[in-house]
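Hey, can you fold this one?
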Amino acid sequence: MARKDWMREEVFQLIALFEEEGILWNLKSLEYRNREKKQRVVEENAIKFNCTANEIQRKWHNLRNQGRQFGFGRRQRRLSENSAVSLAQRNPRTVWRSSG
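Sure. Predicted structure:
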């Protein structure tokens, strides 16, 4: 089966389904390590989206990585003036402009 072309609304629905199913993402869930149960949930979601379980897992993997790239996740960082300066020192190509 070819890759699914995801519509924006479908992506939001997928995210909502994953949020509802704590077994798929909540490390504190007692069932988190139960691979069979997690696979069953993914397969049920695949039926809802008319695609394969591998496609659901691929899409979720990509969404998770995009979220991390933009700073979402367990370790969110707050930029302060000091951290902005240290970031600029690490990457001299970064141009910081003040609005004012």
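The chain is about 55% helix and 0% strand. Let me know if you want another pass with a different chain boundary.
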